[in-house]
Amino acid sequence: MGCCLSTTAAGSKSSRVSRWRSTGIVALRDAKLKTFPDEVIEMERAVRTLDLTHNKITNVPGEISKLINMQRLVIADNLIECLPGNLGKLQSLKILILDGNRISCLPDELGQLVRLEQLSISRNMLIYLPDTIGSLRNLVLLNVSNNKLKSLPESVGSCASLEELQANDNVIEDLPVSLCNLVHLKSLCLDNNQVNQIPDNLLKQCTSLQNISLHNNPISMDQFQLMEGYQEFEARRKKKFDKQIDSNVMISSKGLDVGVDK
Fold it and tell me: CA-to-CA distance for 252 and 234, rounded, in angstroms?
């Protein structure tokens, strides 16, 4: 009986790996994993998408660099504390989601992921972001909410394609002047921080900006309204709101919320 069960299990594993190879998609959500699966590493170039959400994985091995064709990596809600520098060798990676872990810092090699478009690492323990993040010129979305960040690096202003920056629920006091370089930035979310002012030219130079959320920060509405470019920003914000209404898009209870507490 034992041999039959072993043969059945082996056949099931073989079938699963065969399916992964044919689709390029490895989905192991809620699989009760404690370690990074060896059979995935062995697939090397065949992996395009890897989802290991909601397991108990504590370590990402350096051998992950073998998955050189991987475009999407999701390891949310695990127990990971650090990432290997070899992560930077995943040159095809476009989406990296690491929400809900125990990561306190990111390797400098992160900046080597030049094709990365989305980086989400909310609900971790980050105390700083590496300066090399400025090398991510194709990054469209950066989510670092719910961490322990006191500041954002000046280099973030070099993320030339950035459209959405989410950094709610940190302890950020100062914003880098380089944010003004982000001409494609549409949404800046900094609720529940310690921000008492934003760069003087932000509203003037970030000509795509449609949404700023600064609730529960020391900055006042009066300060915000006196900034150069405020009227143009306000016009863009209202235009976006009107467009949503015309398209019958559901509007949140905040509606035309100006994004700053009174």
Answer: 18
